[in-house]
Amino acid sequence: MNKTQAFNKIQTACGYVFKNINLLDEALTHDSNRVNDRAVPTYQRLEFLGDSVLNLVVSEYLYRNNQDFNEGQLTNKRKELIESMKQIQIAEKLNIKDYISFGQSVRREQFSKYHSFVESLIGAVYIDGGLEETRRVIHRLWELSGNSDAANNRTYCVIS
């Protein structure tokens, strides 16, 4: 499968079409590609951003939809939703390993941190489409059911 086909598949799987496809390319480029060219943009900076955006979206949801939770309960629930095991499940659901560009020094079958690319994908969506689009993608990927908040005309999730 060529890069265009791969990008179309991952965009369909995550439910977001990039305006700037270079951001998706960066989000799916492992740093092993920098061996011969240190200027090649890789997933790591987007992963950093995506981690923060994921924390924000999940924290906001929990705050709005769990009025009876104290800070400790909110923290525990957020940890459950953003932990690496959950991101591993999402990476597997997206088949993200099939779309990552590795340099020659890394064997795809030996690499195990595919969940890091879920956060880089979130960071890329955030840069490309903003917070509302990112919120929608996170809700979709985490399979959270929607509940309308009429005051803000936004969709928030209910987690039991």
Description of the structure:
The protein is mainly alpha-helical and 160 residues long. The protein has a single domain, classed as Ribonuclease iii, N-terminal Endonuclease Domain, Chain A, CATH 1.10.1520.10. The chain has helices at 3-14, 21-27, 43-65, 71-82, 84-94, 115-141; strands at 145-149, 154-158. Strands 1-2 form a two-stranded antiparallel ribbon. Strand 1 (145-149) and strand 2 (154-158) form a beta hairpin. The protein is globular. Keywords: Hydrolase. It comes from Rotaria sordida. One of its GO terms (molecular function) is ribonuclease III activity. Residues 7-130 form the RNase III domain.
Brief overview, please?
Keywords: Hydrolase. The chain has six helices and two strands, in the order ααααααββ.
N-to-C span = 40 Å
Instruction: Assign the CATH topology.
Output: Ribonuclease iii, N-terminal Endonuclease Domain, Chain A
- CATH class assignment: Mainly Alpha
Note poorly predicted spans. Answer: 148-160
User: Given the helix and strand composition, which structural class is it?
Assistant: mainly alpha
Per the principal axes of the C-alpha atoms, what is the gross shape? globular
Oligomer: single chain
**Number of helices, where a helix is a run of at least 4 consecutive DSSP H or I residues:** 6
Radius of gyration: 16 Å
Please identify which CATH superfamily we are dealing with: Ribonuclease III domain
Strand content: 5-15%
How many domains make up the 3D coordinates? 1
Order of helices and strands: HHHHHHEE
Fraction in helix: 55-70%
CATH architecture assignment: Orthogonal Bundle
Q: What's the rounded overall pLDDT mean?
A: 86
Largest sheet: 2 strands, antiparallel
Query: Strand order across the biggest sheet?
Result: 1-2
**Beta strands, count:** 2
GO molecular function, one term: ribonuclease III activity
Domain RNase III: 7-130
Pfam family, one: Ribonucleas_3_3
Keywords: Hydrolase
